[in-house]
Amino acid sequence: MRISRLQLTDFRRYRDLDVSFSPGLTVVRGPNEAGKSTIQRALELVLTRRATSAAADLDALRPWDAPETARPIITLTFEQEEEAGPKQGTVQKSFLAAKGTVRLDYDGQSITDPSLADQVLAELTGIPSEAFFRSTASVRHHELSDLARDESALRDRLQASISGADRGTSRARKTLERALHELNTKGEKNPGRLKIAEGAVAQAGAAVEKGELALVQLERDRDASAAARERRTESEGVLRERRSLLEKARQAERLVAERDAAQERFDRYRQAVQVRDELVVLADSHPSTTPLAVLRPAIERLRALDGRIRELRGMLAGEIEVNYDVVAPKATAWRLTAALAGLVVVAGAALAVSSQVGIVSLDNGLVIGLGGVAVGAVLAYAGRRQRQSSQSFARNQQLRDIEIDRRLRGRSDLEEQLVQAEVDTKARLEHLALPDLAAAEELLTREEAHVNQVERLTAQLDGLVGKEPFDTLPASRDAAALTVEQKASALEGLGPIAKEPRARERLEVEVRDAESSLDRARDDEATARARVEANAVDAEEVAGHAERLAMWREQLAALQRRGRVYAATFEAIERAERTTMRTATRFLERRMVSDLGRATGGRYRRVRVDDKTLDIAVHAPERGDWVDVGQLSQGTVDLVYLAARIGLVRLVTGDRRPPLILDDPFVTFDEARATRTLELLRDLARDFQVIYLTTSERYDAVADSVVELPGPTALDDSAPEEPDETAAVAAMG
Fold first, then answer.
1. How much is the pLDDT for 534?
2. How far apart are the first and last CA of the chain?
3. Which of 90, 131, 139, 276 could disulfide-pair with 149, CB 3.0 to 4.6 Å?
4. Could you tell me the CA-to-CA distances from 586 to 332, 591, 606, 611 in Å, in that order?
């Protein structure tokens, strides 16, 4: 394929670009930011990227000043060498994620399906993917050493170029790798089919084992449930029997209590009848015809009159006697004592004062004077006592005269009171028909005893039957006797349980024990039934698990056989690939030897390429040994890998001729190597179209055509702002 024209719309820095290329060597020259890498990227995308791709790098394709509705559009016009002659074609891609479009016009066909269009382009260029393109025919100077961008495509192309087949083994290898991965993956999230089958076999085996154990346990649980049901039935029978006996014992207790109550009631009414009869007799035999309520006050009045009579007789029994004989003190004695006391006190005080002021010269005059004052004080106290005694005698004399007068005037009154008391006593005795007070006392005593007896019997009767009328007592007594006989007969009908002491207490304990035993039996039965119900095992389900186990075992065996076949096939493909890569690397070594010797002026004439990794080594004349290219200068490394890429393009594209796009790979070359390598590219341009992107004019002379790109011209005309030192200091602080 030889590109004749490239048109870009809204692609990176270009709102609109139209570039033409020669069939041989075209130099695209321009300063930095002129858009050279944009042209290379546009060619890569239009030839290899699907128009409906949603990759993130496509978001940056629109120009900065393009509107939101703009979308990148790439149009390519090309010429394809065919056996029948060259054919013209065009392809246009508009990148807008899922809304992207493509139109490929070639050989009279117009293709708009993105997948089909990319497939046709891959057949025309021999480039299966973008990564393969960038590892072979599209070269950036900083990616020269990156040969493994699409290793599988590279291997397929090598195999196809060597074997002449339509496709290589990478698809089969990937299919086998995927199949082996799907078979052998051991991860928990995405397990392989073998692990799934093994897990299914283990799960089915566990299910069968669990089901068989569950069936055995179900049989045991059913037996336990039946035994628990029998124990529960037996416990219910025992409980019914004990409850029946307990009810009889309680009935016997009630009958005994009712019989005892009836017996007690009978005894009370029988005693009440006796008390009633005694009360009837006592009511007709009172000792006194006068009621006790009248008799007792009359007797008490007689007692009072008798006592008054004895008192009056005693008062009148002798003459009046006055015993107030008191010796009268002298009336003037206390006055003499008081006068003497005054003289002594005055004399003592005068003596004491005179001795102190020096009027009297006497030893101890003060002491003698004070002694005289003390004697005078004692005499004054004695005079005061004499005066009090004289006053007391005068009062007693006055009281004696008053008492004598009172007694003389009261004797006549006492005699009159005595006569009146004797008359009242006689009248009351006659009213009671009693001879004297002693007979009255004796009658009162007998009447009180009689009344007390009546009251006691009445209280006893009230305590026995309350206020029940006397005439109903015999009937109540007889009814109580009948009840006693009935309860005794009922007790006889209950049998021996009625005669057993403390039968109810014993049976209540036995009933509680029986109830506890029944509860335990019911719990055991419920537990056993719950275990049976919880055991959801089904014999048919277990049989199904067994059938599935056998099926999974067969599938596991088949998968294991398939895995062995896949592994053997994969190993055969690896052997074939190793053979292919060995042949390819030998071809690559021959091509690189020629190109590398020509470009280096004969310095490196031997090259070795690793069959597995495509690592390159050269024979260094200084060392006389092989040296990995990584140990050489950057210019030599770039030259070696450029030769390797050219060799790979010749090797893997077969009869297809994709365009070679080189982004200034000579930047690290010296002038001589750059000239020799450029001559090499001139020779290569006879078979391949070469598009060389550079900033230098030194390649213009050898180019078939030169495309010059203008650089950017926009400038920032605004003056730079002075920095705010205060704000800067504050920000740093």
1. 80
2. 64
3. 131
4. 184, 9, 12, 9
Q: Of 95-99, 518-522, 529-533, 579-583, where does mean pLDDT reach its minimum? A: 579-583
Cβ-contact 95, 53 below 8 angstroms: yes
pTM of this prediction? Answer: 0.47
Provide the 8-state DSSP code for 604. Answer: -
What pLDDT is recorded for position 194? Answer: 76
What angle do the packed helices 634-652 and 671-684 form, to 10 degrees? 10
- Determine the Cα–Cα distance for residues 18 and 78; give it in Å rounded to an integer: 14
Secondary structure (3-state) at 532: helix
CA distance 263 to 477: 10
Give DSSP secondary structure letters for 135-156: HTTEEEGGGTT---TTHHHHHH
CB contact at 8 A, 348 and 375: yes
User: Number of C-alpha atoms within 13 angstroms, CB side, residue 701?
Assistant: 4
**pLDDT of amino acid 404:** 62
- For 3, the token pair is 């590109």
Around Cβ 107, how many Cβ atoms within 10 Å? 13
Structure tokens belonging to residue 80:
């394809």
Q: Which residues contact 286 (CB under 8 A, 6 or more apart)?
A: 447, 450, 451
pLDDT at 597 (0 to 100):
81
pLDDT band, very low/low/confident/very high, at 74 (cuts 50, 70, 90): very high
What DSSP letter does each residue of 404-461 carry, written as one string? HHHHHHHHHHHHHHHHHHHHHHHHHHHHHT-SSHHHHHHHHHHHHHHHHHHHHHHHHH
Residue 707: φ, ψ to 5°: -110, 115
**Helix, strand or coil, per DSSP, at residue 52:** coil
Confidence of residue 113 (pLDDT cuts 50, 70, 90): very high
Output the six-digit token pair for 132.
């393969």
Rounded-to-integer distance, Cα 614 and Cα 629, Å: 12
DSSP H or E run through 619 = strand 616-620
Q: What is the pLDDT of residues 641-653, one digit of tens each?
A: 777 777 777 776 6
- CA 298 from chain center: how many Å? 98
Q: Which are the contacts of 164, defined by CB distance < 8 A and separation ≥ 6?
A: none
